[in-house]
Amino acid sequence: VIIVLKDPNLMPILKWVGGKRQLLHEIIPLIPEKVTTYVEPFVGGGAVLFEYQPKKAVINDLNEELINVYRVIKESPDELIELLIKHKENNNKEYFYEVRALDREENFLKKYSNVERAARTIYLNKTCYNGLYRVNSKGQFNTPFGRYKNPNIVNELVVYAISNYFNNNDIKIMNDDYKEALKYLRKGAFVYFDPPYLPISKSSNFTNYTENGFGYEQQIELKEQCDKLDSRGINFLLSNSYHPDI
């Protein structure tokens, strides 16, 4: 009997809308024991991935800043920790708004290194109101300051746990349309879909993790993608809102 030891420090580094930490006890038992490739086309904060800890996986998200965080954790965890320590030392309301405003600058993506951008995303996530990652129609971070007494800005244990996991396993990290993550899959693969939900009420209409949203047409298209997987004999699990249209 081979006992695979799970890393208890492997958990989401970011709080993400629609995160599945509270539902892991329901979701994990639904994943088959033998999976050749685990695929998460809308990975978000990665709660299911980090709990399940597959050896081979494809993870994807359309949010460029989110995927940049994962790539930086994989490639440059030490430099990331250094910058997070600086953010922690400087953290106050005024500093928060200075850091938040950086993505209003022209050539934001070229002006700042991947490590600087990743540290900024984690810092804002840990210190903004409710840890809510939200952008406006221009893709600019717009959540206000959160006023926490002691936010966990430098979470070294989790950063290194994720870095080790990404480097010691076959984990492909993609920043693309979710359909790209479904290409070339074979029988034995398993897909967990956790798309932006169709809002149950007008007040809960929150799909702006990325500027372009995910509306009713996209939900229909996703259903058709599931049919295609089914016809290829590929198992999947999908989470969504309890809505008559769904």
Structural notes for this entry:
By secondary structure, the protein is an alpha/beta fold. It is 37% helix and 9% strand. It has 9 helices and 5 strands. It has a 5-stranded parallel beta sheet with strand order 3-2-1-4-5, with helices on both faces. Helix 2 (47-52) links the parallel strand 1 (38-40) and strand 2 (56-60). Helix 3 (64-75) packs across helix 7. It is globular and about 55 Å long. The model is unreliable at 205-211 (pLDDT under 50).
> For the residues shown, what is the average pLDDT?
92
Poorly predicted runs = 205-211
Q: Overall 3D geometry?
A: globular
Strand content: 5-15%
Q: Identify the quaternary structure here.
A: single chain
Biggest beta-sheet profile: 5 strands, parallel
In short:
By secondary structure, the chain is an alpha/beta fold. 37% of the residues lie in helices and 9% in strands. The protein has helices spanning 24-27, 47-52, 64-75, 77-90, 93-100, 108-111, 114-127, 156-168, 216-231; strands spanning 38-40, 56-60, 170-174, 190-193, 235-238.
